[in-house]
Amino acid sequence: MRFVSHLDLIRLFQRALRRAGLPVTITKGFSPHLKMSIARALKLGLESDHEEAIICMDEPVEAGRVIKLLNEQLPEGIRLTGAEEIG
């Protein structure tokens, strides 16, 4: 997975979120998209064991449920290990 670009990783998570059926917030602009961001972009060819993403949801969802549903949709080599609600 280290050869997956930052933009491909964002697309991968967007697809997984849609397939998981989570209530992710959608922007209201001309070109609506899921409201999420991955904290920092890794250079191509580098690996990491701890990356952070912020995903805005329309309604509260239990952290354990988010992890379970997303891990079922993510490809081999990418796994969520934790989730928490931010104020």
Give the integer mean of the pLDDT values. 91
Order of helices and strands: HEEH
Through-space gap between termini: 32 Å
- Tally of distinct domains: 1
* Shape assignment: globular
Q: How many E strands?
A: 2
Rg, rounded, reads 13 Å
Largest sheet: 2 strands, antiparallel
| Spatial strand sequence of the major β-sheet | 1-2
Count of alpha and pi helical runs: 2
Structural class: mainly alpha
- What is the helix content? 25-40%
Given as residue ranges, the uncertain stretches (5+ residues, pLDDT < 50) are none
Range of strand content: 5-15%
Quaternary status of these chains? single chain
Describe this structure in words.
By secondary structure, this protein is mainly alpha-helical. The protein has one domain (6-73). It contains 2 helices and 2 strands. The chain has helices at 6-20, 63-73, and strands spanning 36-38, 53-55. It has a two-stranded antiparallel ribbon with strand order 1-2. Helix 1 (6-20) packs across helix 2 (63-73). The termini are far apart. The model has no long low-confidence stretch (mean pLDDT 91).
